[in-house]
Amino acid sequence: MAASGGYRNGTHKGNTKVDRLGSLGSATKSSSLKSKPSPASPAASGLRRNSTGSMGGAKDDAGVPGRVRVAVRLRPRNAEELVADADFADCVELQPELKRLKLRKNNWDTDTYEFDEVLTEFSSQKRVYEVVAKPVVESVLDGYNGTVMAYGQTGTGKTYTLGRLGEGDTAARGIMVRALEDIFAEISPETDSVSVSYLQLYMETIQDLLDPTNDNISIVEDPKTGDVSLPGATLVEIRDQQSFVEMLRLGEAHRFAANTKLNTESSRSHAILMVHVKRSVKGRDSTLSSENGNSSLMVKTFKPPVVRKGKLVVVDLAGSERIDKSGSEGHTLEEAKSINLSLSALGKCINALAENSAHVPVRDSKLTRLLRDSFGGTARTSLVVTIGPSPRHRGETSSTIMFGQRAMKVENMLKIKEEFDYKSLSRRLEIQLDKLIVEHERQQKVFDDEVERITVEAQNRISETERNYADALEKERLKYQEDYMQSIKKLEEQWVMNQRNHGSERTTFGLKDDNFDKELNGAVPVASATEKTAELKKLLQNEASLRAAAEEEINNLKSQVVQWKRLEAAGNAEILKLRKMLEDEAQRREKLEEEITILQSQLFQLSFEADETRRQLDRGGSGKVLGDLDSFMSQIRRSQLSDSGNGDKASMAKLFEQVGLQKILSLLEAEDADVRIHAVKVVANLAAEETNQKKIVEAGGLSSLLMLLRDSEDETIQRVAAGAIANLAMNETNQELIMSQGGISLLSITATHAEDPQTLRMVAGAIANLCGNDKLQIKLRGEGGIKALLGMVRCGHPDVLAQVARGIANFAKCESRASSQGTKNGRSLLIEDGALPWIVQNANNEASPIRRHIELALCHLAQHEVNAKDMISGGALWELVRISRDCSREDIRTLANRTLNSSPTFQSELRRLRI
How far is CA 4 from the centre of its chain? Predict the structure, then answer.
């Protein structure tokens, strides 16, 4: 397609920018059908074979099987295509209700492909995110790796789908912005973290978009696990959505782009956004508790906290291009060659994985090395392939579709990234140990201060006691000495008096000697001295008792000091015990890592042996036929868990053969609403194949579907049941059965109460198919079929309006045929039921399917002369004239000319108006 609009962030580039994508469904049958690759069935789901060159690398432990999901998105025509391809129909036709895409090979033959999701040119950015990326983002939050990638021709909307910032219009935000919004809404800022790297692969060199000077980053692979990392890339921790948007804007400014004939802003590099999410698992983090009793510290229990590390990789691939169409030359030509070589290497790896080849050429390009985990690895991968409608680029569109078909055959083995946070535990233990040491030092200081205070106080008291004792002794000594001197003086005076009293010298001398001896021996004063001595002894005893009490107190203080030293020794022993526990925990961790390594090697061997055994069974044995209803329900449940949607044709056919139609139909009456939903989806898929329709009707499937439409209040069941009835209504015999069982009345009631555009589209499709039966015209109109169609235009959805227009065109065609055969007279029933104003109003609708069907309806109504006056008064003549001149389809233009020329009433009016 020439000069396609660039879906680049920023302002609108000329008239080539398209801001909204969506689609119109079509019920045209294809001439050939390419079967969608079936996902791995639960019975055959096992570990994939891991070879040295496989994209997945070695797996550490058992995972969950998960097929690569692929969605296709159609870009609307740009301004140049609207002019250059105005006379040509789109090369693709979408059937989103059946998840099918039809690629026209020529004017009469088409190829049909099935995908997990089919997104029309009217699909909103929110719808694209929810069906393509949201399941991957939820898996990343649960601890898995996830990849979202866009692949397609240059100018088909890859960057618009993934990297649109949506600053002017929030509804236009791309997958990158919406993914981070959901991540920030789910994480806890206190315990979780989000880190982002933004890179580009340009000319086989990895460059950092956040640091342009870092322009040659090397890829490092883990020799044990095969995981790929980029240690040289800038890793920025993001705290809020605004910071992330600013980072995207900075990275986008550094990305290489060029102006080519196919795209005014063609990306010349592959952009890779890596989002690392680290989350703590709530409820599994053991706490480290302590109790403080009698100054002792004791650790109760502690375990390392559990963290989950998920990585989201969003890859905006540069578009493939043909040199002759893009007009690249010079350096732009070299860039195109490098882009095509890397995309070719990716395609070879996808082919090898889809064919289960023993060797996958993963090392042919840095792109395939970076995506090693995304295809055949442990990541949940969603791929959106973007295509354009222009028939001039049918070859590129076909190549893109086939790439998506092959990618759907690749199965990954999802593995949760959960591990113990030993670093966090070590930090917590170190903090706890520091607290214990600080507390011990504080208590030790208090203890030393107290001991020192008591020691000083005791010394002061002892010194004071000694001083008091010495002073008392000195006072007693001086007192006793004074008393002794007084006693001597009194004795001398008495002796003098006695000597005077006695006359005889001898007698006097003798008496004097005797009295002096008596006095000297203390006969009289000795009694007083004895009393004093006893009192002094008593004081000495009191002082001795006080000294003994002081010594006892000193001994008590010494015992307290010894006890404090013992407590200090116990605290040191507790600290040593904690350190030993840390060392033991580190040793146990090393042992666990060794055991994990051994288990990984054993698991690798077991997976290899299981693959060998499965291949032998596939060659020599046959599958066991499921024999009861429980087995069928198990298959439906596992299909739901595997995200396989409604299932593809091959799996439905297998269920049909193994279980039997009666058992499937019996589930339509199950009490479990989920069982009914899945059962009706299975019936709808079976009804899409013409070979199954007769069997379904004969087994009572049509009656069961009509019963669901009448009795169920679940809009999902009503939508899928109406779709199944629409598939059955493509057969003329089934149309009469539907009408005879009151099907048109039930469809009309459903259309009256339904609000969901998809439900209304299914109902309108069923009624449109019934409108194409000549025999049912009167009955269909009598039971309110036409009024039901006209009532559904209230929805305004393009898909619903396209089915309404198709039904009116079918009805008008049948009326025209009946009028030409002479079996119908009078005005058209469509005109009588008031359909003409809506037909005239939408005759020039922008949507080509609506406009094409309305133009056919006007031509068929005008072929019956009795309708001419009503059409003239209703303004339909002017639309017929416009169709005869301006219609892009030659067959409709010719029919309009022939109708105007053959009608006398129209000719008379044209002459009157001088046209």
Answer: 32
Structure tokens at 309: 């590390």
Q: Which is nearest to 132 in space by CA: 114, 145, 117? A: 117
Q: Enumerate the β-bridge partners of residue 153.
A: 320
Q: How far is C-alpha 209 from the chain's CA centre?
A: 24
Residues 736 and 759: their CA atoms lie apart, in Å, by 23
Q: How far is CA 690 from the centre of its chain?
A: 39
DSSP 780-816: HHHTTHHHHHHHGGGG--HHHHHHHHHHHHHHHHHHH
Each residue of 839-848: b (16+ CB within 10 Å) or e?
bbebbebebb
276, 196 contact by CB (below 8 A):
yes
Contact yes or no for 150/386 (Cβ under 8 A): yes
Given a cut of 50, whether residue 19 has pLDDT beyond it is: no
Q: What is the pLDDT of residue 728?
A: 86
Report d(CA 440, CA 300) in Å as an integer.
19
Residue-wise pLDDT tens digits, 435-472: 889 999 999 999 999 999 999 999 999 999 988 988 88
pLDDT of residue 602: 56
Q: Is residue 27 very low, low, confident or very high in pLDDT (cuts 50, 70, 90)? A: very low
* Distance set, CA 685 to CA 616, 677, 800 (Å): 33, 12, 21
Mean pLDDT of all residues belonging to the chain: 78
What residues contact 915, with CB distance under 8 A and at least 6 apart?
Answer: 881
SS3 111: strand
The stretch 804-821 carries a mean pLDDT of: 87
d(CA 94, CA 608): 42
Strands 290-293 and 296-299: antiparallel
Distance CA 310, CA 279 (A): 8
As given in the structure block, the two tokens for residue 715 are 């809009």
| Phi, psi torsion values for 657, nearest 5 degrees | -75, -40
Contacts of 697 (CB under 8 A, 6+ apart): 728, 734, 737
CA distance 141 to 872: 64
pLDDT tens per residue across span 225-278: 778 889 889 999 999 999 999 999 999 888 887 667 666 677 778 999 999 999
Running DSSP on this structure, what letter comes out for residue 760?
A: H
Classified as helix, coil or strand, 60 is coil
Share of the chain above pLDDT 90, in %: 19
pLDDT tens-digit series, residues 38-61: 333 333 333 333 333 334 333 344
pLDDT given at position 326:
67
CA distances from 119 to 72, 126, 384, 629, 760 (A): 6, 12, 10, 35, 18
DSSP H helices, 129-193, are 134-141, 158-163, 175-186
Mention every residue, 6+ apart, whose C-beta is less than 8 A from residue 298: 290, 291, 574
Buried b (16+ CB within 10 A) or exposed e, 303-336: ebbbbbbbbbbbbbbbbbbeeebbebeeebeebb
pTM: 0.44
Q: In terms of C-beta density within 10 A (0-12 exposed, 13-18 middle, 19 or more buried), how is residue 870 classed?
A: middle
Residue 11 has pLDDT above 80, yes or no: no
Which stretch, 284-298, 436-450, 547-561, 684-698, has highest mean pLDDT? 436-450
- DSSP label at 146? E
Q: What is the pLDDT averaged over residues 638-647? A: 45
Of 406, 356, 351, 415, nearest to 44 (Cα)?
Answer: 356
In angstroms and rounded to an integer, the radius of gyration of the C-alpha atoms of the chain is 50
3-state secondary structure at position 152? strand
Who contacts 462 (Cβ-Cβ below 8 Å, separation ≥6)? 550, 554
How sure is the predictor about 400, in pLDDT bands with cuts at 50, 70 and 90?
very high
